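Sanity check record (used in CI):
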Amino acid sequence: MFEYAPAPESVRPQIKEHYGLFIDGEFVDAESDFKSVNPATEEVLFTVAEADEADVAKAVAAARRAYETVWGPMSGTERGKYLFRIARLLQERAREFAVAESLDNGKPIKETRDFDVPTAAQHFFYHAGWADKLAYAGHGPDPRPLGVVGQVIPWNFPLLMLAWKIAPALACGNTVVLKPAETTPLTALMFAELCQEADLPPGVVNILPGAGAAGAAVVDSAVDKVAFTGSTAVGRAIAKAVAGSEKKVTLELGGKAANIVFDDAPIDQAVEGIVNGIFFNQGHVCCAGSRLLVQESVADDVLERLKERVATLRVGDPLDKNTDIGAINSAAQLERITALTEAGRGEGADVWQPACDLPEQGFWFRPTVFTGVQQSMRIAQEEIFGPVLSVLTFRTPDEAIAKANNTPYGLSAGVWTEKGSKILWAAERLRAGVVWANTFNRFDAASPFGGLKESGYGREGGRQGLEAYLDV
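Expected output for Aldehyde dehydrogenase (Acceptor):
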């Protein structure tokens, strides 16, 4: 067996000591600022201006001017050229963005390098192609943009969530005011620099770092649409805030996805899918397969192979290309994961964690597997948003569906079986916006994504995702 040798990333992006707000094509300062911390080392990466209500008002006014005078009247063909330019620039600076994302977020470089940045670029390429073809998207012969869009994104996929939001909005002729998460503003601010490099007209994209108050100000401002990805609690508050107004809203919220393994599933393939489903991005994924439902006849075999596989995962430096599980994004999130894990122990579930050394500095949590889990336990009902898997068993397919649907969420699910008929049978009955078959956590810009129940409403990506940014 070969000994493990670190493979550190050699590229280091030029991170400024301080970043301002990006309003009307320029970086400007604010009344206050805050620090952005590297979660793997707890070192301060940079300081950044914090937006307040006045800053939001300025950004919305700039976006409105740009919409009325430049971007709205511009032809779809010309708008598409800008999106193609952004996509190409993002590809050219892909490694720089990947390293910056790992530093600011804590996720492994192999994930940012191979998934986050390429998929973000893909969304700009894909939507650039739609910019002059909106009349053929199935939303009427003459779909019109909404105007100014307020967007609030989370910290788990900072650049990718930005692309999911900004690319379709711009393709449809809208202008944007976007608030990145307070713990991960770096790649959004680098994207603002990229917009300058692409000569995007001033005011078309505005980036306002800040905490929850800044996000609330964006929602309450004079925007025509609100797009939010984040927790169900905040999504519920946003829905109440805009109720009765003319603002359109899309919400992509939390999840507690079931990953169902039937007794005829390809076990080794399923184990890889289980690992990817819950340990990808440290479990900081809304659609993570955090509940594993295994048919009783193969449960022991699946668990044995799963533990063997999890024991090989490397936890550590996000900039090491061999790392599988990086740092938890923040001290607050680590505290929540720890609290819910202790709740699982307290409620009587059996916990297993592989032996691994964790770095002394930073926010870290071992990959965790709970067995003996009951439906009523908090670890089976609440979104942990960390590398924690709850394992339940079932005897019949009907019981699997009943247990999978026994959750207030409905974002995603997975089905593992060799029978296509069983896949279709299960997918028809699962109350989830996305159902993966013999795979998990697969995304494409051409495929719509979104949830049911408390996982939100609206779709992002694909032809269907355009509707949320059009007046149809």
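The chain has a mean pLDDT of 97. If this sentence no longer matches the regenerated tokens, the check is flagged for review.
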